[in-house]
Amino acid sequence: MDTSQTNVIDPKVDKSSNDVAVSVSNLSKNYGEVEALRDMSLEFPRGQLTSLLGPSGCGKTTLLKIIAGLLEPSSGTVRVNGKAVAGPGPDRAFVFQDFALMPWASVIKNVSFGLEMRGVAKNERDEIAANYIAEVGLQGFENSFPHELSGGMRQRVGLARALAVDADVLLMDEPFSAVDEQTRRKFQEDLLELVDSKNKTFIFVTHSIEEAVYVSDQIAILLPRPSRVSEIIRPSNFKEKGADAIRRDSEYLDIVDDIWASLRNYVE
Amino acid sequence: MKNRALLLKFLSALALCIAWEVAGRIPVSYAFPTFLESMGALINMTLDGTLMSAYGETLRPLIIGIVISAIFGVAVGIWVGLSEFFDWLFSPIFIVMQAAPLAALIPLLVLAYGIGLTSKVIVVCIMAMPVIVLNTSGAVKNTPKSLKEMGTSFLASKFEVILRIVIPAASPVIFAGLRLGVSAGFIGAILAELKITPTGVGDIITYSRSIADYASMYAAIFSIIVLSVIFLNLLDKLETVLFRGNQRGYISD
């Protein structure tokens, strides 16, 4: 009942195949006069982590929220597993920059919220939620309230909530920007492991170049006014070297430098 | 910790009673009885049943008015908070209601609705409703955007977002509004009895003053204050039962 349960729901996806989980085509978004996105097209390979990286105002969060179905594009389509997106769906789960935890609800109630909205019975959703709370390392805090947790622990709750609904695609909006540096490093290492162990597609918004290069299989560099994809980088060699070696790898350092060289002109 | 809070509350009440007693003994005014005299009158009125029957009269418009104000006030407040259109439509009415000098309007109400229960209920509502509506709508408008997005992205329907996220998130401020509304409603109920027809506790106050029985007058006033304090404490308990985590503060950092 426990772990086999989640495996049954989990779609068996061949990680090595390079098919596309999410594709964005000719997406535009206008806020009145302001053009936030113009004719953007981008593909997100299944089972991999793609970062959206760019200076502030480049529309990376807008793009993520359109993929999530939280915002309507002015034109263009988003397809998840081949199906056009017309709002939030069970195939996507969101991790918020400010955690977005309900302060009046305990950790387990927060984590099981998505399951509850999907109509999962109480016993079952508590069991699933408890498993994911343990998986993110918060065992024993099930009945704590968000204000009793540190920033890092709060985001672990947010992550457990997103994992609990077992969506194919995880959308992460600068998830580590509100936690301290040391916690952030730990999170990045954990994220690598998560991408490795789950057959999920991650779309990860960040403004940290190092973070993007460290965690990503593919980095989409977005440039502002109007927002467009300027470059797609696929780091290839250092992923296998293990979490500890990456930060000293020469390819890693070169890519960080290259990205900074191309972005520096756009930073005010 | 809890005992200490209780002790402090008790000490503060005691200090007030002593100050009252001292002020009555000086005396600050010929028309100001001592604490002990007032308590004596209170006990007398309780024993001979005057107080009971008076509250039978007073509580009717008070409770009807407060229940109407709470239900409609919160409902309208949520509605106004969710829709800009209704904000424009309704907010001015309640702002005017809140600012209106009610005592001056009472003759108009009596003209329109007579001197019966209706007028008194309306007075209670005019006192209690605006603050409830305005607090509720303000709190609903300020629901953190990311919490609502969280609800939507985890497949909550619009109705579920309101029920499961907007209302709980707004609840501390809604309850603050209810507390203010309830105390205003108590003032309204007494005001109605003083200005429309002297019944219930208002009658005790008016009558005792006219025969210079100031001890009874202050006893009546004291009893209404005690009642409203008890009522507010019950409201606090209700909030704790409904929204436990909120009591310990918001995540603001």
Summary?
The complex is a heterodimer of chains A (268) and B (253). Chain A folds into two domains: 18-91 and 169-268, Rossmann fold (3-Layer(aba) Sandwich); 104-166, no CATH class.
Write the layout of secondary structure elements.
The complex is a heterodimer of chains A (about 270) and B (about 250).
Chain A: H1 3-9, E1 20-31, E2 34-45, E3 49-53, H2 60-68, E4 75-80, E5 83-84, E6 92-95, H3 107-111, H4 113-117, H5 122-135, H6 151-164, E7 169-173, H7 181-197, E8 201-206, H8 209-215, E9 218-223, E10 228-233, H9 243-246, H10 250-263
Parallel strand pairs in A: 3-8, 3-9, 6-7, 7-8
Antiparallel strand pairs in A: 1-2, 1-4, 4-5, 9-10
Helix pairs in contact in A: 5-6, 8-10
Chain B: H1 2-25, H2 35-47, H3 50-82, H4 84-99, H5 102-113, H6 117-141, H7 145-153, H8 158-195, H9 200-210, H10 214-242
Please, could you describe this protein's structure?
The complex is a heterodimer of chains A (268) and B (253). In chain A, 36% of the residues lie in helices and 24% in strands. Chain A is of the alpha/beta class and 268 residues long. In chain A, the strands form 2 sheets. Chain A has a 6-stranded mixed beta sheet, with helices on both faces. A 4-stranded antiparallel beta sheet of chain A has the order 2-1-4-5, with helices on one face. In chain A, helix 5 crosses helix 6 and helix 8 (209-215) packs across helix 10 (250-263). Mean pLDDT of chain A is 85; it is low at 1-17. With 253 residues, chain B is mainly α. Helix content of chain B is 83%, strand content 0%. Chain B has 10 helices and no strands. Chain B is globular. Chain A binds chain B through residues 65, 68-70, 88-90, 92-94, 96-106, 113-114, 117-118, 145-148, 151, 154, 161, 165, and chain B through 144, 146-147, 149-156, 160, 164-165, 168-169, 171, 243-246, 248-251, 253.
Give the oligomeric state of the chains in this entry, treating copies of one chain as homo and distinct chains as hetero: heterodimer
Helix/strand/pairing category of chain B:
mainly alpha
Number of strands of chain B: 0
Largest interface: A-B, 33 and 26 residues
Biggest sheet character of chain A: 6 strands, mixed
Number of helices of chain B: 10
Using DSSP, what is the number of strands of chain A?
10
What global shape of chain B is seen?
globular
Q: What would you call the shape of chain A?
A: globular
